[in-house]
Amino acid sequence: MPIAVYVLGLAVFAQGTSEFMLSGLVSGIAADLDVPLSAAGLLTSAFAVGMVVGAPLMALSSRTWPRRRALLLFLAVFVAVHVVGALTPSYGVLLATRFVGALANAGFWAVALTTAVSMVPDRLKGRATAVVVGGVTIACVVGVPAGALLGERWGWRSAFWAVAIVSLPAVLAVLRSIPGGRGTDTGAAPAPVRDELRALTGPRLRPVLLTMALVQGATFCTFSYLEPLLTRETGLGAGWVPVSLALFGAGSFAGVTVAGRFADARPVAVVATGMTALALGWAALALAAGRPALALALIPLLGMLAFGTGTALITRVLGLASGAPTLAGAFSTTAFNLGATVGPWAGGLALDAGFGYRAPVWVSALLMVLALLVAATTATAKGRRSRAGERRPSAVQRSARGRL
After folding, report:
1. How many angstroms separate the CA atoms of 26 and 22, rounded?
2. What would the pLDDT profile of 277-321 be if each residue is shown by its tens digit?
């Protein structure tokens, strides 16, 4: 595996820390800025909206740039907005910095995914994807709990400063390790945008992208409100929040590692098993939230299933979208973060409706049921088309019948 792939994972670690760390900071932000808990949760949704909008937009605007220049620019913007976020006393400004930071993060993700898979042979594409996505899981293991700990001791702003500082080594690593050519290692011109869009909007990819959005929506729905669930429903002290986030991250890292090994060979089996287990797992957490030991045992298992299934879905999209080498990573990022937008929003609605702190977990279970329905409907429709094709006579058969 080229060292540059691991460098991309390092940069994603810094950005993933920012994306997920709010799950341990929402109460502090809400109290400091005098906003409701659901408004603080929307900071995660704002980041996700920026990722949804930014992934295709940034990928299109930077598709002719040298890869190194694009990655460095996105990282520089990401650092700058975190400095602004750490200084501002305004919820509106903080919300804006989350959106702009997400645009930069989306651009980086779109370029990083396509860069990573372009540097390895087909048999290693799943592992390369796992290394990049693995940066997020390491962020969950190390960065997010550290951010929660900083927030508990020195306030939520210290976590924003930490993300800006941790991102600086990633800038130097990208500068030294990533090739500067356009599009691919050969420097070839990218495929026409129309051709890439046609490949990405075909009937084979649409259901996979929708399934990915639903799976990630379920993950982020619970993850965004994990802190109030544990402290106000499970009965754990605030000190258990970083531990719980680390457990979730450790499970996520294990899931990404396992998925990277098997997603290339058996992507459908990995996705189907993971989705079924997640539907059952989120329901189990909702039922067991009042029992600390059982809840803590389920958290790493759900992290493993969520990110393992997510990695397999990303690999599936990149494999099916070989005709869209520039925008495949962008569409994967958009689907991933569309779920991250809808999930916290839906969980916030359930909280505001007065259904209690377990409500986001039940919403996660419902989203997984919808994902399974999409997958089942797609498989059924594919089977019908296949049987219809087998029954339909070929051109040679029709010609022979005509002669008879």
Report:
1. 6
2. 999 999 999 999 999 999 999 999 999 999 899 888 888 887 777
**What does the pLDDT look like over 176-199, one tens digit per residue?**
777 665 444 444 556 677 777 776
Kindly tell me the burial class for residue 171, based on how many C-beta atoms sit within 10 Å of its own C-beta (0-12, 13-18, 19 or more): middle
pLDDT one-digit tens code per residue, 228-280? 899 999 999 888 887 887 888 889 888 888 887 776 677 788 889 999 999 99
Ramachandran region of residue 274, left (φ > 0), alpha (ψ -120 to 50) or beta?
A: alpha
Out of 137-146, 242-251, 344-353, 371-380, pick the least confident: 137-146
Q: Please give the model's pTM, rounded to 2 decimal places.
A: 0.71
CA distance linking residue 317 with residue 208, whole number of Å:
7
φ, ψ dihedrals at 385, nearest 5°? -65, -40
